[in-house]
Amino acid sequence: MSPRTIQSTLAANDDIDVVLLRTIANSLLTTIANRETDTVMQFHHFTEQIKGLQDRILEYEETFERAPEGYVLNNERVPHFRIPCSHGLSRPAKWIKLNNDGTVSGFADTNGPKSTPHIIDLYAQPDDHYTKDGDPKPTLPLPPWFRFLLVGPSVDFALLHNALIDLDDWGLTCKVHRYCDLNREFSDTCIKLEQMQVDLNALSQARAASETRLLLARASEQVEKLESIPRKPQATCSVWKRKSSGRGHPV
User: Fold this and answer.
1) Buried b (16+ CB within 10 A) or exposed e, 79-92
2) Which residues partner with 236 through β-bridges?
3) How many structural domains comprise the chain?
4) Cβ partners under 8 Å of residue 32, min gap 6
5) Of the candidates 178, 170, 77, 182, which has an alpha carbon nearest to the alpha carbon of residue 122?
6) Domain membership flag for residue 241
7) What is the reported pTM?
8) Is 130 helix (H, G, I), strand (E, B) or coil?
9) What pLDDT, in 10s, does the model give residues 70-108?
10) Alpha helices in 64-153 (DSSP H)
11) Which domain, by its residues, includes 12?
């Protein structure tokens, strides 16, 4: 029975017997017990909800107080790395991670835990120098000792790599390694070209020797009757012509 029902029952009966009074009391006790159970359950539910919200707030506050997994503090490792924000503005990347493809991912200090990392290509930032008059100094060629470290033996390149690690400039380190890789590919391609040139010279000599044997055998005179057969102009040439598609065909 609800309290309102009990109130109506008491108001309508001036003389209530013991049995009815006991029934009303038991009903009130049951109602009170049910209300207490509901209150405890609601309190537990709201407590868990508040704790979950507190954990989310704590997670948001602490995400960029410490490095996200796999990230480190930028600390001028990639000084030019800026992450766009609202109104055309940008903020420096606070947390960065080097990727396997030569790019770098980063978060700004204003990003949240659900933010998508910003990704840029690494490059060496120009280090401009100026004269006393404010004019830019000309860029000089790479000195021989530095070029030797770039393309020399692996032991010497390891010295250069370790010195770059001490500088902690990811962009410069990446570009030095990129130059080393390109120089290796260039050297390998030059070797292949030299071998191809050797093969081409050998083929040219063999073809000339074969033509000499055809001349000595007077091959054309023995099939002179074919001279009047119509032929295409390019049939007299056997030069390999390169097509725009990158492949070739004899013409």
Assistant:
1) eebbbeeeeeeeee
2) none
3) 3
4) none
5) 170
6) no
7) 0.52
8) strand
9) 888 888 888 888 888 877 888 888 888 988 888 899 988
10) 144-151
11) 3-62
